Amino acid sequence: MKFKSRMKVGSTIFTGTMADIVFLLLVFFMATTLFKEEGGLRVRFPQAHPQVMNELGKQFLTVTVWIKQSDPGNDNSELIARIGDYDMPVEQVAEQLSRLSSKFWREQNQKLDVVVLNVDTRVPMEDIVGLFNDMRFEEIYSIQFNAEDLGQYN
Amino acid sequence: MRIRNRPRASGAIPDASMSDIAFLLLLFFLVTTTFEVQKGISYKLPKKPDETTEEVVIDETNRLVMTIKQWGAHEYVVLIDQAPPEGPLSRARAGEDVSLQDTTLQNGIRTLAAQRAEAIDAVQNRLLNNLEVAKGLPSGTFSSLETAIAAENLVAMIRPGIIRTYLGAATPMENSPVFGEVAFGDTLVLSDARQGDIASAVRESELVVILKFFPDCDYEGMVHALDVLRMNGVSRTGITIQQRMGGGA
After folding, report:
1. Is a pLDDT exceeding 80 seen at residue B247?
2. How far is B74 from chain A (nearest CA, A)?
3. Which of B135, B165, B220 to mutate to test the interface with A (most CBs of A within 10 A)?
4. Weakly modelled stretches of chain A, pLDDT under 70
5. Domain containing B217: what range?
6. Residue B57 counted as domain residue
7. What pLDDT score does A152 carry?
């Protein structure tokens, strides 16, 4: 009498659907990924030599401030400042930074390391020095002036 | 006789290599995608004046005061108000403005800065302090830089600064038992194999440049001026406008 061999369990993993899974994952992430956008103002950045500029590492806790004139180039026009999604007069920037700094300390036990300034090139220095004084009053001292790599003036 | 069927063209698109293509695309985008990084000039404002801070008077031998005004779009001119005595630059009279890009001005600033390069001990002390802050240790934990390097198993190295390129053989050098020959403008770095760079300090100049801006001068002028100063070895600057005092570092 001939015995029928028992069914054997295969040791290979079925990979036929691998391509479908990869595509599905790809499509899923393409559809759902949201890039964090800086809700900043459209500003014209100043230029500087790449050798003197530094990048802020991810370990730094930063707040970005955007400043521009409502009518760029017109020194009599109002200045607009933006932190996150909120617009405010430039006179309130330092106070707002101080509030954020306290909030970071209270909620995350972290200190605000650097205030990143994205300022339009045409903003008058009188307002910038005023902002520096306000920041000093609120004991915020570390700044980074963001700039583009020097191109046209070298 | 059996007649063989003619081979028929299949209507299916071969999709066996689809997964390879998907992986290749995924790898390509993973490797080539770069995210925009923000770069800029870092700056420290001075502490606010109160009863605990002492007013610092900058010695006139280390002080250069320049008034900056705008002269058309993207053009800024400098008038030297005060300069260290017997140096390459001297006080200018009204109307003797020079462009911020003027080579003689920049060479003069660089020479003044190089003549006031910090002593290596001061840089090493700052580096030790930066290391203690980075490690979250109380000030004075290590008696010396050598002790700290041995205790934390760190590697000491020099990152050459841009001033070496300008000054060449004239770059002021000083010998350090830890780092060897350190030039003015070089960065001293302490790193470890796991975390990379831990702390750094630049061999700076003790020259302080006060920039007095006309109130209507554009913000661009300030960034240009800081850029010119940093390129020429000046890291200690004060920023003010003519009517009222402002920040500095």
Report:
1. no
2. 9
3. B220
4. 1-6, 36-38, 152-154
5. 63-116+206-241
6. no
7. 46
Average pLDDT estimate for B81-96: 89
Any domain includes B58: no
Q: Please give the helix or strand (H or E) that residue B107 lies within, else none.
A: helix B103-115
Tell me: do B175 and B154 sit in the same domain.
yes
d(CA A72, CA A51): 29
Q: Does residue B150 share a domain with residue B195?
A: yes
Per the structure, how many domains does chain B have? 2
Please answer yes or no on whether A55 and B101 come within 8 Å at the CB atom.
Answer: no
- What are the pLDDT digits (tens) for B91-146? 988 888 999 999 999 999 999 999 999 999 999 999 999 999 888 888 888 989 99
> pLDDT, tens digit, for every residue of B54-63?
777 888 899 9
Q: Which ipTM was obtained for this model?
A: 0.78
Predicted confidence band at B1 (pLDDT cuts at 50, 70, 90)? low
What CATH number is associated with residue B233? 3.30.420
One of 3.30.420.270, 2.60.120.10, 3.40.640.10, 3.20.20.300 is the CATH number of A47-149, namely 3.30.420.270
Say how far apart CA A128 and CA B222 lie, in whole Å.
10
Q: Do B41 and A50 touch (CB under 8 A)?
A: no
Strand-strand pairing, B187-192 and B196-202? antiparallel
Question: Quick check: B62 and B116 in contact, CB under 8 A?
Answer: yes
Identify the DSSP state of B200: E
- Largest Cα span, chain B: 116
The answer on B190 and B128 residing in a single domain is: yes
What mean pLDDT, rounded, does chain B reach?
87
Positive or negative, the CA dihedral B7, B11, B16, B22 is positive
CA nearest to B66, candidates B221, B171, B231, B205: B221
CA of residue B198 relative to chain centroid, distance: 17
Look at residue B32 and tell me if it is in a domain: no
Contacts of residue B20, defined as CB under 8 A and 6 or more positions apart, other chains included, come to none
- For the packed helices A93-108 and A125-137, what is the interaxial angle rounded to 10 degrees? 40
A110–chain B Cβ distance below 8 A for any pair? no
Identify whether B28 is part of a domain. no
Contacts of A126 in chain B (CB under 8 A): 215-216, 241, 243
